[in-house]
């Protein structure tokens, strides 16, 4: 589809205010079902539930407004919104494979994507090969005659490894393989996988789209044909579509998305600079920092990098990492990212002290999300925590 102005998409597109009393904010159509006056009209929607309003497990007016906006942001033809990012991944992958197929996935994808690949799909004879996605030749070597899907996550959410989306898309199209990219890190404002030739773009709307840490949701965008296929099977049958109130919260979140990303991005650069000069920091990992191994690809492929970064601290014992995290007063220890609040999570949280190896940089790695606070407020909090281990 033709691209639209972002301001138009966020403030007007998909909204027909004359249909709801010229209200500025669209209403929440908090209804389970919809009535019909004509049997013929009911019959038509029975035949194609995506063609009209029948039951809010399928199509709902509030959700439709959100679908249109998110599809337009991705330059995609259509969109489905799910009640979690995990549900969006599950449906898009399940719709792309059949028994006996093979998947090529990047190493260590999102937890629930990997659990699907490792625990659920093998029940049906679907196998997965994990590769280092930073090199296109690794994709070429991994493809089998039965490969039906390539699953990407660019950047991923810990070391921010990228894939060359255009190169992978070109390879996949030549082999008639479907491609899916998790675009949660960048959002559609900073990266558009569909424009790079990827078939479906997936993202956790829980994060930047919501922006307020009060809604869980997932998004899949792509062609109308692909979205219709998912809608008629996985979406309706699993019943994993988003509810009207949560869709309304995401519409509200979209209004301020550019402002929040700009603020977060600017603050992040200040925090990155602070961490890079700190004597207790061994390494900072951020895609748009010149020290990042794929910096040139990041600049070419991404318009921005928002607020998620990792850093490695100098520590001999796991207790030092724990002390650092527990000494922070304002940066909260929690999973996820994209909300108003800054967050941190140590990679060693899944280890016991006996498993901690100071020679393994991942054991000393912390993932930091920068929220909407002032940069100095965050740096002061980080410095206080550093003082406890220095």
Major sheet: order of its strands? 1-7-6-5-4-2-3
CATH topology of the largest domain: Aspartate Aminotransferase, domain 2
**Separation of termini?**
54 Å
Shape: globular
* Count of strand segments: 12
* Biggest sheet details: 7 strands, mixed
Mean pLDDT: 97
Q: Indicate the low-confidence ranges by residue numbers.
A: none
Give helix % range: 25-40%
Query: What is the assigned CATH homologous superfamily of the largest domain?
Result: Type I PLP-dependent aspartate aminotransferase-like (Major domain)
CATH architecture descriptor name of the largest domain: 3-Layer(aba) Sandwich
- Secondary structure class reads alpha/beta
Overall number of domains: 2
How many helices in DSSP terms?
14
State the order of secondary-structure elements, H for helix, E for strand. Answer: HHHEHEHEHEHEHEEHHHEHEHEEEH
Strand content: 15-25%
CATH level 1 name of the largest domain: Alpha Beta
Rg, alpha carbons: 22 Å
Summarize the topology.
Layout lengths: L5 H6 L27 H9 L13 H13 L4 E5 L2 H10 L7 E5 L4 H10 L6 E5 L4 H7 L4 E7 L11 H10 L3 E5 L4 H4 L9 E5 L13 E5 L1 H15 L5 H12 L1 H20 L4 E5 L9 H7 L6 E6 L4 H9 L5 E2 L9 E4 L18 E5 L5 H13 L3
Parallel strand pairs: 2-3, 2-4, 4-5, 5-6, 10-11
Antiparallel strand pairs: 1-7, 6-7, 8-9, 9-12, 11-12
Helix pairs in contact: 3-10, 11-14
Nutshell version of this structure?
It is built from 14 helices and twelve strands. The protein is of the alpha/beta class and 390 residues long. The N and C termini lie far apart (54 Å).
């Amino acid at each position: 589809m033709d691209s639209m102005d972002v301001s138009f998409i966020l403030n007007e597109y998909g909204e027909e205010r004359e249909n709801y009393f010229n209200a500025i904010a669209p209403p929440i159509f908090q209804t389970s079902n919809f009535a019909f006056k004509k049997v013929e009209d009911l019959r038509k929607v029975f035949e194609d539930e995506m063609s009209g309003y029948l039951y809010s497990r399928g199509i709902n007016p509030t959700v439709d407004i959100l679908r249109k906006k998110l599809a337009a942001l991705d330059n995609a033809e259509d969109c489905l919104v799910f009640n979690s990012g995990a549900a969006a991944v599950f449906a898009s992958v399940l719709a792309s494979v059949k028994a006996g197929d093979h998947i090529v996935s990047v190493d260590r994808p999102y937890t629930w994507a990997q659990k699907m690949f490792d625990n659920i799909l093998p029940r049906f004879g679907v196998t997965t090969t994990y590769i280092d996605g930073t090199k296109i030749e690794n994709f070429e070597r991994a493809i089998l005659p039965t490969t039906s899907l390539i699953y990407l996550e660019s950047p991923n959410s810990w070391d921010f490894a990228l894939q060359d989306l255009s190169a992978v898309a070109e390879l996949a199209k030549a082999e008639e393989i479907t491609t899916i990219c998790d675009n949660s890190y960048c959002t559609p404002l900073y990266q558009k996988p569909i424009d790079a030739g990827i078939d479906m773009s997936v993202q956790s709307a829980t994060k930047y789209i919501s922006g307020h840490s009060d809604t869980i949701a997932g998004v899949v965008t792509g062609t109308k044909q692909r979205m219709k296929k998912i809608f008629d099977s996985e979406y309706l049958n699993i019943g994993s579509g988003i509810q009207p109130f949560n869709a309304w919260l995401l519409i509200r979140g979209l209004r301020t998305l550019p402002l929040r990303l700009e603020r977060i991005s600017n603050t992040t650069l200040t925090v990155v600079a602070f961490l890079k000069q700190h004597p207790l920091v061994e390494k900072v990992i951020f895609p748009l920092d010149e020290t990042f191994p794929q910096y040139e690809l990041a600049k070419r492929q991404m318009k921005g990098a928002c607020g998620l970064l990792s850093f490695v601290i100098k520590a001999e014992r796991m207790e030092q990492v724990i002390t650092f995290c527990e000494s922070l007063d304002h940066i909260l220890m929690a999973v996820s990212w994209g909300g108003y609040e800054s967050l941190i999570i140590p990679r060693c949280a899944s280890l016991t002290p006996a498993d901690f190896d100071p020679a393994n940089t991942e054991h000393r790695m912390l993932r930091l999300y920068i929220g909407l606070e002032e940069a100095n407020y965050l740096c002061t909090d980080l410095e206080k925590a550093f003082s406890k281990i220095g």
